[in-house]
Amino acid sequence: MINIKFCECGGLFEPNRNKLRCRNCGKEIDKQMECKLTTQGRKKEIVVIEDNAPNLPVMDKECPKCENDKAYYWLIQTRSSDEPPTQFFRCTKCKFVWREYK
């Protein structure tokens, strides 16, 4: 089993006598010392619509929840660019949000 260790700077530790030495920064550690690699994921952006009247167009669309006949709408490209965008709706009365694929 091969045990690869990485330095805090992101460099790879290589054997150097009885120690491990980082290729990038030259830091040395004992071979028995354990190193832990952690990664930070990127957060996805979320579209937030404020509670008061959003600055979005309104159309005649029946809400599936309260049957109101007006809804705000917007388009977002949620799939690959060769497919049509996803249309989102938000009821002007109960604020329920739903989507439709074209």
Structural notes for this entry:
The protein is mostly beta strands and 102 residues long. The protein folds into two domains: 41 residues, no CATH class; 44 residues, N-terminal domain of TfIIb (Single Sheet). Helices cover 0% and strands 31% of the residues. The chain contains no helices and seven strands. Strands 4-5-6-7 form a four-stranded antiparallel sheet, with no helix packed on it. Strand 2 and strand 3 form a beta hairpin. It is rod-shaped.
> Level of helix content?
under 10%
Count of the separate structural domains: 2
**The level-1 CATH class of the largest domain:** Mainly Beta
Judging by the overall fold, what is the CATH architecture of the largest domain? Answer: Single Sheet
What topology, given as strand order, has the largest sheet?
4-5-6-7
Q: Please tally the helical runs, counting DSSP H or I stretches of 4 or more residues.
A: 0
Q: What is the chain-wise order of helices and strands?
A: EEEEEEE
Mean pLDDT value: 80
Outline:
rod-shaped
Strand content: 25-35%
Q: How far apart lie the N and C ends?
A: 51 Å
- Rg, Å, rounded: 27 Å
Major pleated sheet: 4 strands, antiparallel
Structural class from helices and strands? mainly beta
Q: How many DSSP E strands?
A: 7
> Low-confidence parts lasting 5 or more residues at pLDDT below 50?
none
CATH topology of the largest domain: N-terminal domain of TfIIb
